[in-house]
Structure prediction request, 140 residues.
Amino acid sequence: MEWFEEAQAAEQRGDWDAAIALVSAHAECYSTDPSRHDSHLWHMDLLARAERFPELTERALTDVHARRRLNTSLRERGMEAALRNRAEDGDRGALYVLVRLLCETSRPEEARRAVQDVGPDDQYAHQIAARFPAPSSGSQ
Prediction:
């Protein structure tokens, strides 16, 4: 059996340690070899699915793929405080994910407040928030 078949089998049975070990040995960020780069993305996905947030957070300091996967995982779990903390620490991707999450859960005012608090000069964050209308006040 090839390493990737073993990794897939481990992943299917939820043996995250084995799957991560197998995949990480063949993973390389921005490799010229597409299979090594794909393995890197798979590795980041496995870390997120295994809920290894400390490891993913450490990698996110220097790896854009880890950062994106971490922010997506936090969003999927509704971990707004963690996203906000990451945004306050300078992760603009976390700010964008947080703003979208707040807007998509019918909280556009909270989203606008987050932009004002965390990234008042970030035009893209303002654009995301502007796509969602503020609730009408009921008075005309």
In short: The longest helix spans residues 34-49. Residues 49 and 114 are 27 Å apart (CA to CA). The chain has a mean pLDDT of 94.
